[in-house]
Structures are given as C-alpha cells and as structure tokens.
Amino acid sequence: MTELLITGARPYGEGDPVDVLVADGVIAEIGERGALRAPSSAEVLDAAGQVLLPGLVDLHTHLREPGREDTETIESGSRAAALGGYTAVFAMANTDPVADNALVTGHVLRRGREAGLVDVHPVGAVTVGLAGERLAEMGTMATGEAGVRIFSDDGKCVADPLLMRRALEYSTSLGVVIAQHAEEPRLTGGAQAHEGERASRLGYVGWPASAEESIVARDCVLARHAGARLHVCHVSTTGTVDVLSWAKGLGVDVSAEVTPHHLLLTDERLETYDPVNKVNPPLRAEPDIERLRQALADGVLDCVATDHAPHAEQDKSCEWDAARPGMLGLQTALSIVADTMVRTGLLDWRGVARVMSERPAEIAGLSDQGRPLAEGEPANLVLVDPDAEWTVRGAELASIAGNTPYDGMRLPAVVTATLLRGRLTAREGKID
Amino acid sequence: MRDLLTTDGLGHDEATAILDTADELKRTLLGREVRKLPTLRGRTVITMFYENSTRTRVSFEIAGKWMSADVINVSAGGSSVGKGESLRDTALTLSAAGADCVIVRHPASGAPHRLSGWLAETRTSVVNAGDGMHEHPTQALLDAATLRERLGSIEGRRIAIVGDVLHSRVARSNVHLLATLGAEVVLVAPPTLLPHGVEQWPVTTAYDLDSQLPGIDAVMMLRVQAERMRGGFFPSAREYSIAYGLNEKRLAMLPDHAVVLHPGPMLRGMEIASPVADSPRAAITEQVSNGVHVRMAVLYHLLAGEEL
C-alpha cells in the first residue's frame, strides 16, 4: 500500500504542527516537523498548519437509493460525504423499497462499498414498511451481511407506545440502538412550520414543540423501563433539551443528535415561503437555536448529524404545503458547526471531533471510526483549513439534488482532504 | 404597486389611495345605466381558483368586466391543473399566454408569493384572492371601505373580530390593515381559536364577547367552518353559539352607531342570528357591493397605474 506523509498538521487544532505518516491504512507515526523518515515513494500532503481531525461520522443521512436515484445515489451521496469530511455515514431506511429487511440493507452496504468513498452503513427500519404496525426483522438485519447497528423509522415516528416499548425491549437482545424521529403525529396533522408568531402571521399550520418533547419524554421513560438504548434524532427544541437533561440525570441510556440547520437557521426563513427552508422538524425560533448550541457544548446533546435530505427540483419549486421536507447537509455540516460553535467559542476543534466523529462512532458502535489521532489507529482523517471561507452553490455540490438553504452564503472552514483507511477520498474540493 | 399579496406592509397612503379610488369608482358608476368603464380595455385578467368560491371569484370577474378587461376564469377542476400540472408551470403558461394579471386563490398559504416570485421577470401582476390561513387582502380592503362609509372614519375606532381567528385569512388581513389605518382591534375567541403568538400582534384579545360589546364601533363576525366544529376546537356548535354567536340580545348591547360585518358565507343561527344579519345595523350586502369597487380599484392601481 502506498504511504502518505502529511506535513505540518495540527491535530485537533492544538499545539505546534506535526508530521503524520500514514501507511497500510493506519497512522504509522506522528513526529515533529521534519523528523519522520518517509520512503521516497510516499506521497506528501502539505497541511500548512491546518486542523487534523478524525474522519467525521454521520448518524443520519438520506442517500435515496434505492428509489429516488433522480435526487441522490449511494455513489453521489458518498462523494458529498467525502467532500464534507465524512468517513462513515448511516443511510436512513426510508428508501423505496424500505430498508426493512436484510436484502435491502445488504444491497445498500454493497453499493456503498462499490463507491468506496465512505463507509456506508444502512439503518434498518423499526417497523415493516415504516408503517408503524409490526416490527421489522431487526435480528436478521443485525446479524446479516450489513450488521445493522441502528434502527429507525426516521421520517415517521414510532408513535404507538406499545410498539415502541416492544422495539426497545427487543433491541436489548441485539445490542442495537433505536433512533426515534420524535413527532407525535396527533399533534402535527397538516403541520408545516414551527408553531410560533411567524407561522401564525404567515398562515402556516403550526408544528408545536410539544409534539417532539412529549415523544422524547415518553421514550426516555420507556427506554428506562426496558433497560434499552435510545437515540433521539434531530432535536430541535428547548423543551427537548430539558427532557434529555432530566433523563440523563436519571441514568437513562439516551443519546441525541442535532442538525447543523437547527443550529443556524430560524423560522425567520418562513417569510420567503421558499420550501428550500422546509424541513422536519421545522426550523425553530432564536431561543431554541441558542439553547441547542449550548446543549451541544455541554454534552446534553451528544452529536451533530446532518439529516442530509436531497429532493428533486420539482418537489421544492412549488407551493410550501406541497413541497417535501428536507435539505442537503453533508458538504456544509462542518462549516456550519465551525460557524455556530467554533467561531462563537462554544467548542474548540477537539470538541468538534467529539460531536462530529467520536460520539457518533461510539453511539453506533463503530470500532474503527472516531478514534484518537494516535499511532496505530485507523487513518480515517479529515484535514480542515479553519481560516479559509467558501461560498455555497447548490449546483456545485456533489449531490444530484441542489436543495441547500445555504445557497450563496459564505461559510468558514474548508475541508481540504479526507482519508478513508489511509486513502485520499477527497482533496481540495475534488474526489481523489 | 406591482402585486397585491398581503396587507402586512401595505402603507397607510397606499391603502387610502385604493380606498379613495374605490369610492370614486362607486360614485362614477352610481345610477349609470351602462356600468362599463373603458379603463382596462385590452388588458387580460385571469382568475385561478384552486378552492371553491362564488362571491370572491364573481366579484373579481365583475370588477374586471366593468373596467372592460378581458376576464378569463380558470378553475382547478376543469384545466391542466386537475391533471397534476405544477402551480409554477400553470402560472408561467398563463403569463406567456398574455395575462396582465392573475388573481389566485389557493389552499396553501404563500402560494401567491411563490407565483409573484416565478413571474417576477414577466409583466404579469399577482393578486391574492385568499391563500390558506394567510391573507385575503381585498376582503380587508372592502371591509375598510364599508367601515369608512358607515362610520365616517377608521382612525381611533374600536373593532372586534369575533370567532375562528386561528384559521382565518380574513382576520389576518384585517388585523394588519386596521392597525395601519389607526383602529384598535380586539380579537374575541375561545383560546383554541386564537393563534399561537397572537400577543405579538397589534391587537388585544378577549375570551368574553359580552364584556367587549358596549365599547365597540364595529364587530366583524368570522365564518366558522364545518370541519372546525368536528375538529375539537370547541365542544359543540351550541356552546359556540351561546358564547360567541351574535344574537339580538348582543346586538342591543352594542352602541347605536355600531355596525355588523360578516365576510360570508354566513351560518345563520350559529355564528349570527338571522334577525341580526338582516338588521339595518348589518352592512353585509354593502360589503359585497363595495367588494366590486375595491377590486376595480386594485386592478386599476396594478394595471393602469397613474394614467386614469
């Protein structure tokens, strides 16, 4: 295997720049600048003082294959992931057909390996067809080729409390985690936007915070009762942070993610009626984003997950109510975190490594991701220029769809290289 | 003015100019045998109604025809819309076919805003004829015209809007316009029918109608839609009617000069008692006739500009 010498990188953005020798897919050696003896055949990557982090891990992406290959494929989504600094992504189960059986999860795994740019781990559905009626064959998916570790009906809530109880109980025998899309459907019938003054004035049917909070509270209680692990997808409200604090204080085995868009954007975007801003759960109010940022810094929220959701132009270029919810996220996540958490002083780069790599890998039980930057560890790495800025252009992103709410925005932090087991997958904004 | 999408942000002078034009048009047409002005001859106005409506569509159609515009009605059922064509494609098609103005009613809030954006590079104006729970600006303008006519002025008047404020586009448009024109607005409804965040609107709110009536210059009753009655927003039509229905006893509690408005269609006996609707205090038929003049004024300001 070829060797790669990264010169002048700053692990976690700390201390003096060092050289990192990558060989055979692992970090072979870390030493002072110029101290390492690399073979003459080694490729050299001049990091010029940039920040070196463990490769990012996304617990929540929609790669749309099988079913909506007109908006994203596992291959195109893998490109977006690599360009965004990711070395592992979890592909949600709401494909067509649904990933509610080992045939589909195996297919997704293989397609990810064929693309070879990022580890694609399929998420299995909790219920057959995401219908919320009976459990999917979680055991077969967990022990099958894909070794599914996370189960979720994301896009839909496992709303039936009895079914959720059974799913949590059953999951304990498999050592897997149930990831809940927390939305009480009886409280969100026809809902289009965060229930607040803006939605009221602009005539959107409100999506109340209590619809999320009541399910999170219920599920924390159920998880405690079952002795099971629970992961809460895309936390969006102040009240959910309160509930999670309470549950964690009681020792409930619960983890939670927040999306970049819920850290940055507010329901102010509703004024435009442009459905590029439509997402579920909806963009919330200013006090919510402040609280979410603080909770991510404090660890009440464990990690950042993108909820990357490509949609076709015609599904966004329409009236708001008819549009599909969701937005691209893989290539902008790190920059949004840099903007909302690093620039604000809430997290340093070691903290970014924690919330975007280490904790998500831990939650998913990945042994080769989110590892320390140390000799002998797998070389799943990302190099970030923290001082550079870039302008987001939806059409230039690697996803087939272009539905980014950040179009035209200037964002800090540029991913300059991504390494998957020692191999460059992305470099200077291009797939290597 | 290029489009009329909302009364939120419609300035005092702009709104007053529309109302003045409506008055002028009304005077001009009064007693004429042939109610036809040449003002919009050669202009094409298309109504696109994605929701059933009789009064609003007919009102716009008459307004256009009395100003000699060519008015074409497109309804969702009998066109390519019914075949699944997108709103954007329909709008671009109608614009390319020569529409100077599209008047749209749509169940989705913000649909006219989207149309306005898609048609920004064309010469087609957009008028919002009611979008979802958002706004119905010409209704608020015709209500204002009626209030001016009956009360002489709007500034400083106290106006109650009663009923299903939560789902009402009429209420939202009236809140903005009445605030701009200097009225005091009180929204009267049960808590389940008041919007979240209403405390940030330029209004006061009350749950009890009776205590409000003695100080009111005008009361606007809102329509209660049948599906709301089944939706658990209040226990029963009977209880709603007891608490919020405008009956003769309540009419007597209003000051003598106070006027009763209703955007229609009315649910007689439920939200408004028949004798109240038919009393001289009610301005409901005037609202309808003022609607035509206000819509003529809107089309005039959008399409004819300053050259009357």
From TrEMBL, chain A:
Recorded GO CC terms: cytoplasm
Enzyme Commission number: 3.5.2.3
Binding site for Zn(2+) 2: 154, 181, 234
Keyword annotations of the record: Hydrolase, Metal-binding, Pyrimidine biosynthesis, Zinc
Binding site for Zn(2+) 1: 60, 62, 154, 307
MF terms in GO: allantoinase activity; dihydroorotase activity; zinc ion binding
Domain Dihydroorotase catalytic: 49-237
Cofactor field: Zn(2+)
Pathway(s) it belongs to: Pyrimidine metabolism; UMP biosynthesis via de novo pathway; (S)-dihydroorotate from bicarbonate: step 3/3
Biological process annotations from GO: 'de novo' UMP biosynthetic process; purine nucleobase catabolic process
Pfam families for the chain: DHOase
Catalytic activity: (S)-dihydroorotate + H2O = N-carbamoyl-L-aspartate + H(+)
Annotated cofactor note: Binds 2 Zn(2+) ions per subunit.
Annotated substrate binding sites: 62-64, 94, 280, 311, 325-326
Record family assignment: Belongs to the metallo-dependent hydrolases superfamily. DHOase family. Class I DHOase subfamily.
Descriptive protein name: Dihydroorotase
Organism: Prauserella isguenensis
TrEMBL record, chain B:
One Pfam family per UniProt: OTCace_N
Enzymatic class: transferase
Keyword Transferase tagged: yes
Reaction catalysis annotation: carbamoyl phosphate + L-aspartate = N-carbamoyl-L-aspartate + phosphate + H(+)
Key word Ion transport present: no
Binding positions (L-aspartate): 83, 169, 223
InterPro entries noted in UniProt: Asp/Orn_carbamoyltranf_P-bd (IPR006132), Asp/Orn_carbamoylTrfase (IPR006130), Asp/Orn_carbamoylTrfase_sf (IPR036901), Asp_carbamoyltransf (IPR002082), Asp_carbamoyltransf_Asp/Orn-bd (IPR006131)
Residue span(s) of domain Aspartate/ornithine carbamoyltransferase carbamoyl-P binding: 2-149
GO cellular component entries: cytosol
Family listed: Belongs to the aspartate/ornithine carbamoyltransferase superfamily. ATCase family.
HAMAP family the record matches: Asp_carb_tr (MF_00001)
Subunit structure, as described in the record: Heterododecamer (2C3:3R2) of six catalytic PyrB chains organized as two trimers (C3), and six regulatory PyrI chains organized as three dimers (R2).
General function of this protein: Catalyzes the condensation of carbamoyl phosphate and aspartate to form carbamoyl aspartate and inorganic phosphate, the committed step in the de novo pyrimidine nucleotide biosynthesis pathway.
The name this protein goes by in its record: Aspartate carbamoyltransferase
Organism of this sequence: Prauserella isguenensis
Record lineage: Bacteria, Bacillati, Actinomycetota, Actinomycetes, Pseudonocardiales
